[in-house]
Write a structure and sequence with these properties.
Helix content is 34%, strand content 25%. It is α+β, with helices and mostly antiparallel strands and 340 residues long. It has two domains: 80 residues; 240 residues, 4-Layer Sandwich (Deoxyribonuclease I, Chain A), CATH 3.60.10.10. Helix 3 packs antiparallel against helix 4. The mean pLDDT is 90.
């Protein structure tokens, strides 16, 4: 350290802070937001912290300095986090006639408030879905509309709201024999489920939409909001997400069928709620995806908050994130095959 120039000493000081924050974030999935809400907020920054530590490692590597060991060791300790952020392997794509294609898509009310200045957005979304023809489609922030006509599907929807009816929906090419909703108090968010029948198998499909963070990702909006207000609001949201997760897990524990959980968790794969909902299930992106797998259009770094989870009764034969900018979320699709 004594041999470092002043600039490098400052760089290493910042490097130490960033490395410590990343190390601290490794315990976040095991920390209840109700007990440490402010600490849980750090889970949103994990992708950014990983990328910063990689940059610090490269910086010291190019300078041939032993300080590279700090970020290298921290990254190595949390190598599972690194692979959750970026999959280096090619995307799995095994075609099999027994595959069940499952798509999850937060459609942001089909652009009813014209966030995207294009009146054809809802038609483009329907055309995209019709082209991909998923066997099962889970949608958040869904609203019924005469122009939204998906032919060949059974449907279950749960809606609320006065001005614009909206909620969650599940479409299935397989018959729906049971359905229902898990209501979350004091919010329009909820979880819904359907039981579908494929051949002799009954499969439970969940669509989970946890409390939104309410963060506008544009630079202008973030710049005008104080960090104190932002932290308080996000902390409150994380507490609500934990309560909603508890209600969902109580329902999930009573399910006797093979299951797939889809949804917009409004939180990352480094969070407490993700760990609790995932449990022993497979994350389809981790098993079959590649690249960053980002699902939310956040300008600063890749964020994955939409998930498809499947239990061990399924083989994950493929996963894809579609670069379709018709919402603030990107659609994801998994190919699942029931293991014999």
């Amino acid at each position: 350290m004594k041999r470092l120039k002043l600039v490098d000493k400052l760089v290493f000081f910042v490097n130490s802070i960033v490395a410590t924050m990343l190390l601290l974030s490794y315990i976040l999935p095991y920390v209840s937001p109700k007990n440490f809400a402010l600490l849980s907020v750090l889970s949103l920054a994990v992708p950014f912290l990983i990328l910063l530590n990689i940059l610090f490692f490269v910086y010291w590597l190019l300078k041939v300095k032993k300080q590279l060991l700090l970020s290298l060791i921290i990254l190595f300790i949390g190598y599972n986090y690194l692979f959750s952020l970026y999959k280096f392997s090619s995307s799995k794509n095994i075609e099999d006639p027994n595959n069940i294609s499952v798509m999850n898509y937060n459609v942001r009310l089909f652009n009813v408030f014209e966030w995207i200045p294009d009146e054809t957005v809802k038609i483009q979304i329907v055309d995209f879905i019709s082209e991909k023809q998923p066997d099962v489609l889970s949608m958040q922030e869904y609203r019924p509309d005469e122009a939204i006509d998906l032919k060949g599907y059974y449907k279950y929807e749960e809606l609320s709201g006065k001005k614009v009816k909206n909620g969650q929906a599940i479409f299935s090419k397989f018959p729906i024999v049971n359905s229902g909703s898990i209501e979350f108090p004091n919010t329009s968010n909820n979880a819904i489920f359907v039981d579908i029948v494929k051949a002799k198998d009954t499969i439970r499909i969940y669509n989970v939409h946890l409390q939104s963070l309410g963060i506008d990702p544009t630079v202008e909006k973030l710049a005008n909001e104080s960090s104190e207000n932002l932290f308080k609001r996000v902390s409150k949201t994380f507490k609500m997400q934990e309560s909603q997760t508890d209600l969902f897990l109580q329902h999930k524990a009573r399910c006797k069928y093979k299951m797939v959980i889809c949804g917009d968790f409004n939180n990352t794969a480094y969070s407490y709620v993700y760990k609790e909902i995932k449990g022993d299930l497979q994350d389809a992106f981790v098993e079959g995806g590649n690249g960053f797998g980002r699902t939310f259009n956040f300008k600063f770094f890749p964020v994955r908050i939409d998930f498809i989870l499947a239990d061990d009764a399924f083989e994950v034969n493929g996963f894809k994130t579609f670069d379709v900018e018709l919402s603030d979320h990107y659609p994801i699709l998994a190919k699942l095959k029931l293991a014999k």
